[in-house]
Task: inverse folding
């Protein structure tokens, strides 16, 4: 392929996004701190997703229309620092493609060069070892080579990009200490790699597909006609299309057929996935098949009925459980178990969010604005979210107070106190006191080797954090939990330890850990719950 | 700040300098802007080279509130850049001074937007 039009360019960006979404968690993990609390990958993919959403909204008929939609979409959707830089790169690429109808590799080089130029303009003292370095190095190389075929060209440019990404580790001391490459740089090259896969005819489908905001709303509470999302990769690119379409839509919908390079991807929603596979096998061998239960996914989403921070989606309008109440409690929850606990404790608005998904200010503003409670008490439950919550409080023309809770367990302690408080009490003060009296701890695995607070952490080993400080590392959850009693808390004031099991943590192992804690703290009551939080095997509170 | 073996005192000037340098490192910030009318005047007459850009107040309880006046590059999402300024500057300031992040309140004033290569 030597030239591409705007439709193909859109497909390129879409594949870039799909590839980034697949590797999102990895990019997120490239934070200089070993806990997975970075969100560069999330921010960059949300930025690119909004850009492409804008494109599909405007239905561009020309390259000019396409790049203009992409550019303005990325500006509107820019999230976080890395998202802002990515939006500049896209803006630069768009500006260089503006007057073309088709794009050659030479044009693409100009796009990269313009991207680098525009991206650098917004910074006074550029530091080497960031996404900027990588876009510049790629554009310099691209400008110097003449390869007409898009696949060969992109492969060549990406090789230089990869090399530049690897070198970022040595360029920035913080990256060197953590033995990682720059997350934004990695994200950018991941996008280009997705583009290359598209040019080569390899299918790029995000491994963690996420329904769009709109789709989510439509899906709310719905019984699906066809339950299984079925994707079959057939080893032939000349299936009798008409016949296959007719057959598969008899008992299915959302059919998509795409052929390239000796393969056909068949996507269909059906209740009999095995029939579809058996039917397709008549034509050619099956290379791969994926089946997903969409009903389960739908129930997951709507069952928890909480805000999806990613899309700024909050409870459906009018879904605020606090209409007309005196004080509505707004909590940020990291998982379904916590959602449940918060609901039982009388939280009125639940917003999803946590370490890798910091809800934007709007995630607070919208549901609070749509709720007619007389006052609001907000629990951000993460030190990185407190600011967004405070900002929301200042934006709203309502009585909104932010309780500075740094962990969900602190909000639970506060809600328990509030349940038993009398209406005349100062609720904000009660909540703040409960939060202050509650220490929290968590156990998670290091996503990479690093040195934190003077402790060396090996990738994959477990870490115990108490009040956001790393206190111990070890090979298993129980070995690190043993160190809990050595921590310097005012144990004499404490009476209750609550522990919450993470979404991926084994139930049996958890039971044993609870038993161990019960033995270790004979004077305290140990209470186990299911928290369903991501990343953290165990979190807990001591109050 | 104090500990058992002595006290370190940060002047308002030093605080402003640190905040200024940290702000200039944020992506999207192309420069700082004069804080007061007097500065604007003297800068217009080219009497001062670098605008002060930061106005910091030390509260009686030791916490700090500062307003950073910035110029941004055209074509950026201002809200995100402002958010990045507050979080990055606060982080850099805390790391350098040891003053906890929650003791630092930052306000950002976007003074102007630089369009492409216009000279400042």
Result:
């Amino acid at each position: 392929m030597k030239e591409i039009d705007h439709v193909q360019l859109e497909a390129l960006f879409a594949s870039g996004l799909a590839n980034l979404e697949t590797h999102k968690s990895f990019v997120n993990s490239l934070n200089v701190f070993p806990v997975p609390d970075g969100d560069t990958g999330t921010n960059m993919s949300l930025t690119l997703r909004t850009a492409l959403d804008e494109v599909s909204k405007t239905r561009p008929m020309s390259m000019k229309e396409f790049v203009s939609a992409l550019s303005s979409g990325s500006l509107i959707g820019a999230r976080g620092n890395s998202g802002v830089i990515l939006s500049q790169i896209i803006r630069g690429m768009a500006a260089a493609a503006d007057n073309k109808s088709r794009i050659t590799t030479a044009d693409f080089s100009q796009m990269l060069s313009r991207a680098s130029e525009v991206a650098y303009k917004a910074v006074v003292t550029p530091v080497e070892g960031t996404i900027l370095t990588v876009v510049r190095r790629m554009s310099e190389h691209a400008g110097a080579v003449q390869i007409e075929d898009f696949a060969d060209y992109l492969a060549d440019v990406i090789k230089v990009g990869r090399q530049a990404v690897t070198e970022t580790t040595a360029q920035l001391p913080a990256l060197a200490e953590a033995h990682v490459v720059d997350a934004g740089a990695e994200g950018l090259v991941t996008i280009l790699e997705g583009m290359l896969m598209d040019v080569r005819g390899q299918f790029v489908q995000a491994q963690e597909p996420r329904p769009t905001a709109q789709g989510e709303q439509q899906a709310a509470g719905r019984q699906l006609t066809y339950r299984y999302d079925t994707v079959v990769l057939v080893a032939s690119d000349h299936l009798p299309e008409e016949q296959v379409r007719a057959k598969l839509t008899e008992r299915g919908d959302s059919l998509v057929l795409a052929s390239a390079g000796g393969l056909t991807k068949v996507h269909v929603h059906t209740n009999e996935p095995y029939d579809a596979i058996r039917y397709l096998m008549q034509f050619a061998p099956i290379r791969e098949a994926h089946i997903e239960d969409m009903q389960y996914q739908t129930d997951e989403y709507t069952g928890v009925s909480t805000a999806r921070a990613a899309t700024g989606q909050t409870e459906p309008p009018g879904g605020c459980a606090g209409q007309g109440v005196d004080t509505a409690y707004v909590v940020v929850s990291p998982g379904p178990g916590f959602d449940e606990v918060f609901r039982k404790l009388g939280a009125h608005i639940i917003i999803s969010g946590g370490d890798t998904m910091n809800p934007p200010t709007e995630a607070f503003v919208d549901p609070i604005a749509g709720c007619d409670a007389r006052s609001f008490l907000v629990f951000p439950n993460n030190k990185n979210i407190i600011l967004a919550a405070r900002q929301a409080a200042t934006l709203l023309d309502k009585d909104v107070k932010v309780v500075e809770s740094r962990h969900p367990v602190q909000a639970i302690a506060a809600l328990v106190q509030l349940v038993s408080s009398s209406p005349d009490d100062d609720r904000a003060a009660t909540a703040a006191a409960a939060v202050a009296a509650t220490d929290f701890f968590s156990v998670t695995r290091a996503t990479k080797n690093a040195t934190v607070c003077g402790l060396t952490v090996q990738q994959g080993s477990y870490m115990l954090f108490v009040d956001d400080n790393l206190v111990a590392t070890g090979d298993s959850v129980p070995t690190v939990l043993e160190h809990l009693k050595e921590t310097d808390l005012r144990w004499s004031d404490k009476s209750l330890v609550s522990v919450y099991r993470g979404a991926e943590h084994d139930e049996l192992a958890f039971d044993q850990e609870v038993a161990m804690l019960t033995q270790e703290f004979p004077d305290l009551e140990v209470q186990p719950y299911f928290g369903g939080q991501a990343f953290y095997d165990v979190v807990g509170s001591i109050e | 700040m104090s500990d058992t073996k002595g006290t370190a005192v940060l002047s308002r000037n030093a605080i402003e300098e640190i905040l200024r340098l940290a702000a200039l490192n944020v992506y999207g910030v192309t420069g700082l802007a004069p804080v007061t009318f007097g500065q604007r005047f003297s800068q217009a007459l080219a009497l001062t080279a670098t605008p002060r850009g930061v106005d910091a107040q030390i509260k009686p309880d030791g916490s700090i509130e500062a307003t950073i006046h910035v110029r941004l590059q055209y074509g950026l999402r201002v809200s995100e850049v402002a958010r990045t300024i507050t979080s990055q500057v606060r982080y850099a300031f805390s790391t350098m001074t040891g003053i906890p992040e929650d003791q630092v309140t930052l306000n950002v004033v976007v003074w102007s937007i630089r369009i492409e290569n216009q000279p400042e």
Q: What stands out?
A: Chain B touches chain A through 23 residues (CB under 8 Å). Residues 78-97 of chain B form the longest helix (20 residues).
